[in-house]
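Box 3.1 A note on notation
Throughout this textbook, protein chains are presented in two layers. The first layer is the amino acid sequence; the second is a token string describing backbone geometry. Keep the layers aligned when reading.
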Amino acid sequence: MSAAALAEAVSAVGSTRQLAKAARRASRQLATLDAATRNAALEAMAAALLAAGPELLAANAEDVRRAEAANATLPEAERLSPATLARLRMDPGKLEEMAAQVRSVAALPDPLGRSLDAIELDGPGAPHTRGGLRMEKLSVPLGVLAVIFEARPDAVTQIAALALKSGNAALLKPGREVERTATALVRVLRGALAEAHLPQDALTLVLGRERVDELLGMHALVDMVIPRGSKALVEYVQAHTRIPVLGHAEGVCHIYVDRAADAALALRVIEDAKTDYPAACNAVETVLVHRELAAEFLPRLAELCLARGIRMHGDALVQALLRDVPTVPAVDDWHTEYGGLELSLGVVASLDAAIEHIHAHGSAHTEAILTEDAAAAERFLHEVDAASVMHNASTRFADGFRYGFGAEVGISTSKLHARGPVGLEGLTTTKYVVRGGGHVAASYRGSDARAFTHRRQP
């Protein structure tokens, strides 16, 4: 997209408050739609993405070109990291994956209007009433989501698909480095909404860094903020809004190699967890090895790391055991998310010590144990406090698509509302519906009070 076209897109979006009000109106219309209508719109979105492939890839190529050019002139502290550049890039395969995720969301069960509970409060027979008094708890949309993200083109399609399926409108605020890609994506998706006769304001782009604080101040119009990006971004959002925030600041993920681990299995899992996508928040950052296995296992792990270009950092015992391996510096900070081909290595005396280390230095994102000892595995899975815990599996499985959610709006390490990869269920709330026949509360007070039946209904 040219600079002129981008400027035109910015001028056309209107004030942030106007956009939020329009999104609120659209969200109320979405909440009334049946599942078939929402699914048809999602299919139209997926088809539109693939049809617009050349345009979308060209916009992304321009974003990448500008980011790389800026990196060549900026001080090192201000450059985009290799991990961020990796997230920014799109190719035909990535675009096909994005469209497939939209279709996978359409294939999921409808999250709205589900009866989560039903209770008969009173049966038929109350004076001056017709029939009984019944309460039902239903799933309903949250309303309006504000999503602030950095260098993640797929965040646009994931959020759009999950928001529409769950009856929510979305305000998308992309980072400057991905503005051209996001603008092109949103234009295509809004076109698909129009073709499906749905309100285009269900998906809106908000451009300009100065608009972040405006969004964060709109607690009367926005129901949830979802930051997707750096620790600094998430912490800024959390500190500057009264709106509920869904997300995680860091992904400091651990793998504990127990004394009863299968070494070949452990090496395969660690390799995947570190190298499959090093920039991902669910990539492993620290490997802890039981001391009874360390002398045998660590040299094999070091050989793997050297072959795959993984830079190792170790504690004193690791450095001693790997003294013949060149350049294994000490771990500067165990609470480090490298986001690249680097790994902290430590030796622990026991399962208890591993769990203690994880709780002291982890970010409650994803933790894994590699062991053939079923009792040790169960202790780890039950005692480690994290959004996802794994046994003999890569931390990379902590993902909404891999969990069968179709996609995810993000991963939450909060314990309130939603935790772990957040899909459709995390974008709904509840409504209590009470049906009566002229019932009044006064009938249930005093000497002649009627008694509630409180019978659970199927």
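The two ends are 55 Å apart (CA to CA). The chain has two domains: 3-113+143-246, 253-397.
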